[in-house]
Amino acid sequence: MASSTKSSLAGHPSRGGAxxxxxxxxxxxxxxxxxxxxxxxxxDEADLSWASPVTEPYDANPTDPGNDLGYAxxxxxxxxxxxxxxxxxxARPKVRRALAYAVDKMAILDxxxxxxxxxxxxxxxxxxxxxxxxxVPFDLYPTPGDRGDPDQCRRLPAEAGYPDGLTLTILHRDVxxxxxxxxxxxxxxxxxxxxxxxxPLGHAHYYAYLQDPAHAEAGSWDLSAPSWTPDWFGDxxxxxxxxxxxxxxxxxxxxxxCYSNPEVDRLIEEALATTDHERAYRAWHEIDxxxxxxxxxxxxxxxxxxxxxxxxxxxxxxxxxxxxxxxxDLSNLWLEETP
Length: 339
Description:
peptide transmembrane transporter activity, alpha/beta, Dipeptide-binding Protein, domain 3, 11 helices, single chain, 339 residues, ABC-type transport system substrate-binding protein, SBP_5_dom, 32% helix, SBP_5
């Protein structure tokens, strides 16, 4: 088993004294260490974990452990809009709209919920989740209970000229929940008469592969399920929608499916150029509506980028920071001695 280490940070006497940190001496076996650290914090022998995150125990998903900072798309389905496969079927909005109806979002939520990570999750219905500029609730592809509608999915491809169905390749990471997410998507599509092939990649190569348009243009994949978390929340269109949907077929792009719509590009430039926040907000929302009408992606889950880390009884003002993997801001918390 990995060893554990205890350390402390000196504090001002009026703010509760030294902060007691407890964590792994090595990272060979994270789970046993996390359990041990959690016991120390619960026993009031430590204030916070160090290096090995310890999730606060919960019976149901917390309402919002991240102070309502905002939400990421994790995951979302991106379509390869330049794929030559099936006679270029993924390039046709009507085909993509059909696939949007197929996805059982609750099944994928269950996959992540079984990980017991403590993150807030709920079905996503637009490209912009709450906490990001341009968010206005709407749903162009409603299905009963967010469970998918295979009949609707089966009907639309036939109307688009594919009465015998399609064969699509899912590119997915081969670690964590990703294989199960890919299998869930495959089951959804197969219920609608679509054949699915799998293309697994290691995590280290996955995003680099998606960011090379040559792979998309060659038809190496037709759909995938990445995630997208903005660098900050609020006024963040340049960090959220712009990289995802502005025309960019250069290597390193974050527009993985090579989606392109001149009106979307125009509105992005308008939103970035204006100093009127309300006007920019409206423009980002208009982009969201256009992207969803084109079914460039299928938003699957709104995922809070923070988890409720376990903290000791003395800890006050522990604010999680999504940009540093959900750890608390140590510069602003303090300790209050308990009776």
